């Protein structure tokens, strides 16, 4: 199994910045893509950003130019640097990865979520 633990959420004023971290642990054989999703109240969970094991990235249009995803493969950790935050960025942010655990096939794993609140 693979466990994901997020940190770095909180309350910030509009225009501010936050950095989210997500560390994967467990019986990991390999990690493919890692990403961040978010879910605002009353809305569906949506992709924010994703990064492959090779470093290729993809972003939701709403965050392009403001958010940057990165990863440290040696630490099995993915980061989301969020700048110029807007009230509409308020949501629970979830870390996700596609990983191969020992003696298992590739599966999707989710963190518990971290709240990001942006005040106007």
Question: Can you give a write-up of this model?
Answer:
With 120 residues, this protein is an all-beta fold. The chain is 0% helix and 62% strand. It is built from no helices and eleven strands. The strands form two sheets. Strands 2, 4, 5, 6, 9, 10 and 11 form a seven-stranded mixed sheet that branches. Strands 1-3-8-7 form a four-stranded antiparallel sheet, with no helix packed on it. Strand 4 and strand 5 form a beta hairpin. The chain is elongated, with a radius of gyration of 14 Å. The termini are far apart. The model has no long low-confidence stretch (mean pLDDT 96).
Distinctive features:
120 residues, elongated, 11 strands, 7-stranded mixed sheet, single chain
**Oligomer description:** single chain
Instruction: State the helicity in percent bands.
Output: under 10%
SS element count, helices: 0
Q: Strand pairing plus helix content: what structural class? A: mainly beta
Q: Report the uncertain regions.
A: none
Q: How far from one another are the termini?
A: 40 Å
Shape: elongated
Give the biggest beta sheet. 7 strands, mixed
Average of pLDDT = 96
- H and E order: EEEEEEEEEEE
What percentage of the residues does DSSP assign to strands (E)? Answer: over 45%
